[in-house]
Specification:
The protein is mainly alpha-helical. It has 16 helices and 3 strands. It has helices at about 30-40, 40-50, 55-70, 75-80, 90-105, 115-135, 150-160, 165-180, 185-195, 200-215, 220-230, 235-245, 265-280, 285-300, 305-315, 325-345; strands spanning about 15-20, 25, 30. It has a 3-stranded antiparallel sheet with strand order 1-2-3. Helix 8 (about 165-180) runs antiparallel to helix 15 (about 305-315) and helix 10 (about 200-215) crosses helix 16 (about 325-345). The structure holds D-malate. D-malate binds near residues 186 and 307. D-malate binds next to loops. Keywords: Acyltransferase, Transferase, Tricarboxylic acid cycle. It catalyses: oxaloacetate + acetyl-CoA + H2O = citrate + CoA + H(+). InterPro entries: 2-MeCitrate/Citrate_synth_II (IPR011278), Citrate_synth-like_lrg_a-sub (IPR016142), Citrate_synth-like_sm_a-sub (IPR016143), Citrate_synthase (IPR002020), Citrate_synthase_AS (IPR019810), Citrate_synthase_bac-typ (IPR024176), Citrate_synthase_sf (IPR036969).
C-alpha cells in the first residue's frame, strides 16, 4: 500500500524525530528527555504554540487563561446524560462533546489569528473538564470544578476523584502529558491539518483528530495494552501468553513504531515512572508483567516498547479507568494538534494527495435492462 506516495509533506516547527541518527525526539529543539524530567505541561503547551519557552510572567498568564476557560457550557455536560453513557466509548462521547463545544463558541468561525489562538486556549482548558465530567457522570457522580491553585496535571486528577492528588501522582501524570503532547506528523495530527487546510474551523480540526486518535493503531493502543495485561493476569502467565502470540505471528500491543529504529525515547520515562508508582500503590504485578513482556519481545523480536506500553501501567497505578487512557492521550495531544492547526492557518495550502489508482481501465456503461 503506497497511500502516502507522492504526498507533499507539511511544514512543521513543533516536534521532530531524528530516527536516522539516534531516535531523538525534540519539541522545538528541546530534547524530550529534558522536558520529561523538568518541564510542566503548561510550559510545553506554551513552547509548542509560541516556539519558545515562556518567561515566568507568560507562564502565569497562560495558567490564568486556562483556569478561566476551564468551565464547559452546562448544555454540553447535560448532553452526556442523553447518551447511552455506560455503553459508549469515552472517546466517542468526547469527540461528540468537542464538536458541540464549537456550537457554543461565538468565535467558532472567526478565522482571525487572535481568535484562533483564543479558541486553542479554550479547547485545551476544556478538554480535562470534559473527560473528567464524563467519567463522573457515568458513575452517577457530579462533575467537580477545577481548583485555581492547582496546576494542569494536579487539576485533572482532582477533577476525576475529588481528592487532591499526592505529589508522586502529579509527577507521573505531568510527565505523561509532556511525553504525549506532540509527535511529528502522526495520524491524528495529520488528520487535524488536512481538515483545517480546507479553512474549516478549529473545533472541526480537533473533532476529526480525536476520531483518528481513537483507533487501536494509534491512541487506542494504550487501552489495548491494558486489556492484554489484564488478560495475561499474572507474571507466571507472561511466558506462555507472549510466546503463543509470537508463534502465531500476532501483534503484541505497545511494541514497535513506524518511525523509530532503535526505540521510542518516551517509553523509558514511563517505565521508570511505572516502577516508581509501585511504591504509591504497593502493587507491582502490572509493572513486573510489563518488564517481563519487554524482555521477551525485545530480545526475541528486536521490537522495543513504544509510548503506549508503559503508559498503560502508569495510568492503572493512578487508579484511572482503563477506557479513559485514550481520552487522556487526547487531553495532552490536543496541545500538539492546536500547535499544528495554528501553524497550518499561518501559511495555508490545501492538503490533497493523489490516490494511486489500481482499479479497472476504461469501461463502457451499459444501462440495466
Ligand atoms: C504518537 O505519539 O502519535 C504515536 O507514537 C504514533 C505516531 O507517531 O505515528
Amino acid at each position: 500500500m503506497t497511500a502516502t506516495r507522492g504526498l507533499e509533506g507539511v511544514v512543521a516547527t513543533t516536534s521532530s524525530i531524528s530516527s536516522i541518527i539516534d531516535d531523538t525526539l525534540t519539541y522545538v529543539g528541546y530534547n524530550i528527555d529534558d522536558l520529561a524530567e523538568n518541564a510542566s505541561f503548561e510550559e510545553v503547551i506554551y513552547l509548542l504554540w509560541h516556539g519558545q519557552l515562556p518567561t515566568a510572567g507568560q507562564l502565569n498568564e497562560l495558567k490564568e487563561q486556562l483556569a478561566k476557560d476551564a468551565a464547559v457550557p452546562q448544555e454540553v455536560l447535560n448532553q452526556f446524560k442523553t447518551f447511552p453513557i455506560n455503553k459508549v466509548h469515552p472517546m466517542a462521547a468526547i469527540r461528540t462533546a468537542v464538536s458541540s463545544l464549537g456550537l457554543f463558541d461565538e468565535e467558532a468561525d472567526v478565522m482571525e489569528k487572535d481568535a484562533n489562538y483564543r479558541k486553542a486556549v479554550r479547547l485545551q482548558a476544556k478538554l480535562p473538564t470534559l473527560v473528567t465530567a464524563f467519567a463522573r457522570i457515568r458513575k452517577g457522580l457530579e462533575p467537580i470544578a477545577p481548583k485555581r491553585d492547582l496546576g494542569f496535571a494536579a487539576n485533572f486528577l482532582y477533577m476525576l476523584t475529588g481528592e487532591e492528588p499526592k505529589d508522586i501522582a502529579v509527577e507521573a501524570f505531568n510527565k505523561a502529558l509532556v511525553l504525549h503532547a506532540d509527535h511529528e506528523l502522526n495520524a491524528s495530527t495529520f488528520t487535524a491539518r488536512v481538515c483545517v487546510a480546507t479553512l474549516s474551523d478549529v473545533y472541526s480540526g480537533v473533532t476529526a483528530a480525536i476520531g483518528a486518535l481513537k483507533g487501536p493503531l494509534h491512541g487506542g493502543a494504550n487501552e489495548q495494552v491494558m486489556k492484554m495485561l489484564t488478560e495475561i493476569g499474572s507474571v507466571e502467565n507472561v511466558d506462555s501468553y507472549i510466546h503463543e502470540k509470537l508463534n502465531n505471528k500476532e501483534k503484541i500491543m505497545g511494541f514497535g513504531h513506524r518511525v523509530y529504529r532503535k526505540g521510542d525515547p518516551r517509553a523509558k520515562h514511563l517505565r521508570e515512572m511505572s516502577e516508581k508508582l509501585t511504591k504509591l500503590t504497593g502493587e507491582s504485578h502490572f509493572y513486573e508483567m510489563s518488564t517481563k513482556i519487554e524482555n521477551i519481545v525485545t530480545s526475541e523480536k528486536g521490537l522495543p516498547p513504544n509510548v503506549d506500553f508503559y503508559s498503560a501501567s502508569v495510568y492503572h497505578s493512578l487508579g484511572i479507568d482503563h477506557d479513559l487512557f485514550t481520552p487522556i492521550f487526547a487531553v495532552s495531544r490536543v496541545s500538539g494538534w492546536l500547535a499544528h492547526i495554528l501553524e497550518q492557518y499561518e501559511n495555508n495550502r490545501l492538503i490533497r494527495p493523489r490516490a494511486d489508482y489500481t482499479g479497472p481501465g476504461m469501461q463502457t456503461y451499459v444501462p440495466v435492462e
